[in-house]
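Handout, section B. The chain below has 71 residues.
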Amino acid sequence: MAESVYKVIELVGTSSESWEKAAAAAVKTAAKSLEDLRIAEVVELDMQIEDGEIHTYRAKVKISFKYKDDD
């Protein structure tokens, strides 16, 4: 098997509806500009609160993708 290298980036997705949709938004947006996405790991969940109400769900996601070597 050939050796591979993967890069890991961290993104924060947001949603007014749920943490699941916030995480999905991060992955969907990353997929628009990155190729060969491999793993998405939710590492932190939080909420933005305004006037005592949940305003925004936020999901911090680590996403890995295969690193392309130009050699």
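Note. Helices lie at 19-33. Compare this with the example in section A.
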